[in-house]
Amino acid sequence: MAQTDRVARLAAHRSSEPSASGLTRLLRELSDPDSSVGAHDLLEVRRLDGGIATATHRLRVADHRGHQVDLVLKRYLVDDDTVGLEWDRLSFAQRCAGVATPAPVLVDLDGTWFGTPALVMTALPGAVRYDVADPNGWVIPLAQTLAEIHRTDVSPPVPAAIRRTPRWRSLDPAGLPESWRSGPRGGDVTRAVERLRRIAPDLPEVLCHGDFHAGNVLFDDEGVSGVVDWSAARLEPAEADVSNTRAELALIADHLPALFTAAYLDARGVTLNALPLWDVLAAVQMTGWMPYAGDTVNEGSGVDISREVALTRLEAFLDDALGRAGPEVDQDAS
Predict the structure, then answer these.
(1) 234-237 and 205-208 strand pairing
(2) Gap between the Cα atoms of 284 and 278, Å rounded
(3) Residue 334 pLDDT exceeds 50
(4) Helix (H) or strand (E) holding 207
(5) Secondary structure (DSSP) of 300-318
(6) Do the beta carbons of residue 261 and residue 313 sit within 8 Å?
(7) What's the CA gap between 210 and 218, in Å, rounded?
(8) Which residue has the higher pLDDT, 284 or 117?
């Protein structure tokens, strides 16, 4: 019941509109001479699809000379304390020299504008692209973009938000779906995660996006135009991002993860010997948002995946990973 209530609560929040009074208060701050925007008029408010935990809208504002600027407004639930983390992570993401990222503009930690925390950032050009008919023209640029993110300079200073506890430390296999816990997968997953925890501390860390998938990458006529949603960014081994993307692509078609991985390895010139263990971790983590699969994968994507189909494909991805995570993986990764 609690899970059902949360799904409904988040769905209602995502579809909600920002209040007129809140937009007035926001515009007042955007018009402040110290603001990087200097907005004078609000011209357009448009809801953006995608995402799970925030209500997201694109704002078009104009300064007193009529110059127009596009911004993105994210509104969080009243009890969501991640807005400050996202501000810090967006700020750090500006180090990504080869990838366009949104720049943070204003943050409201206390809910002064709309009654709940909110964040304003610059909008990037382009649109989300799902092109199963042309996987080379779609998936390979995704892989090359992730490789570029992983080249980001992570020398000090690095804010605490980027040095948060990595997910391979915090994962609790007890959170597996009942159908996984009660079968042979439960023990296999637990053993794979334990092995991962032994080898992960010795792997080099890079700036990981934390939620890199096709829904967070924008394309224009020239190719990838930017990467959005840096709310989960942190320092982790590159495998964490690669496997997360592989798991997401597996929900769309089972041949896409291998294409993505080959392009990523080629772009970075590295080997990822322990990838099967990270695939297990990614699959387990993804079970947490299976209740939202129909909302996040389908909207605006042209890809029609029901929750039932998504879970079936995720189980196939997990079983394949467990099969590849043989007893020699630990030695290979050392």
Answers:
(1) antiparallel
(2) 10
(3) no
(4) strand 205-208
(5) TTS----HHHHHHHHHHHH
(6) no
(7) 16
(8) 117
The model's pLDDT over 264-311, given as tens digits with 9 standing for 90+, comes to 999 999 999 899 999 999 998 888 777 776 665 545 556 777 888 888
Q: pTM surpassing 0.85?
A: yes
User: Any alpha helices (H) in the chain, and if so which ranges?
Assistant: 2-14, 20-30, 83-93, 135-149, 167-170, 178-181, 184-199, 238-250, 256-268, 275-286, 293-298, 307-324, 329-333
CA gyration radius, the chain: 20
φ, ψ dihedrals at 58, nearest 5°: -95, 130
Helix (H, G, I), strand (E, B) or coil at 29: helix
Rounded distance between C-alpha atoms, residue 146 and residue 203, angstroms: 18
Find where tokens 């603001």 sit: 35
32: tokens are 């402040």
Give me the residue label for tokens 């053993």: 191
User: How many CB atoms neighbour CB 174 within 10 A?
Assistant: 8
Describe the crossing of helices 135-149 and 256-268 by its angle, rounded to 10 degrees. 40
Mean pLDDT across the chain: 89
- Choose among 321, 65, 72, 85: nearest CA to 189: 321
Q: Are 292 and 305 in contact (CB under 8 A)?
A: no
